Amino acid sequence: MKINNIKKKIIFMIEIFIAFSLLLFMLLRFPIIKKLFPIYTYKGFSCIIITAICLIFFLLYIKKYKIVDIDFKDIIISILIFLLVHLLAFGMIATTIDRSFSVFLLNQISISNNQTITLEETKKLFIDKYVENHRAFEKRFDEQIAIGTVVETSENEYKMTNKGNMIVMLFKIFNSIYNIQSELL
What's the confidence (pLDDT) of residue 166? Predict the structure, then answer.
């Protein structure tokens, strides 16, 4: 294969990656997606999979009609790169931002225009803005009910499910294996 053809193929694959990444970012903003997947993590992973499936069909169409000279190896590599980049970015960054008090805290300190902030002010920000205004507790608790780790037994009484107990056990195993030393478990 000539160098010129390889360059064209690489440029085409980069353009396709960018185009389908933009499609993914738009899909994440559709209101219907939020209704289908109210839990942010599930919404993101589902959108990545949906976009990857669209990418597969698009590349197969390109191959079938020989619009660009690609083979199945190119298609597989393109899909794997798309999935790896977006699953890693979403799993490591987007989900962390959605769930992280540290991100909230850093943002609150940064918007204080380089003024100092006391530990007490930080605690007040946490309770007033993070817990109360952003409904942090309710979001996480509702999430646990939605995924089936906690079940309501009667009005305002909840119980851990077998699935929930299994997840806690797995967290304890990971905590031990990776020596996280988390006081939360």
Answer: 94
Range of the domain at 111: 102-177
- The Cα–Cα gap between 23 and 27 comes to 6
74 and 114 assigned to the same domain: no
Q: Is the pLDDT of residue 42 over 70?
A: yes
Q: Same domain, yes or no, for 170 and 110?
A: yes
Same domain, yes or no: 150 and 130: yes
Residue 184: pLDDT over 70: no
Q: How many domains does the chain have?
A: 2
114: left (phi over 0), alpha (psi -120 to 50) or beta: left
The two three-digit tokens of residue 97, written as one number: 């931002």
Q: Is 95 exposed, middle or buried (0-12, 13-18, 19+ CB in 10 A)?
A: middle
Do 29 and 94 lie in one domain? The reply is yes
Q: What is the mean pLDDT of residues 138-156?
A: 90
The residue with greater pLDDT, 64 or 109, is: 64
Q: How many CA atoms lie within 13 A of 42 on its CB side?
A: 11
Neighbours of 44 (CB within 10 A): 23
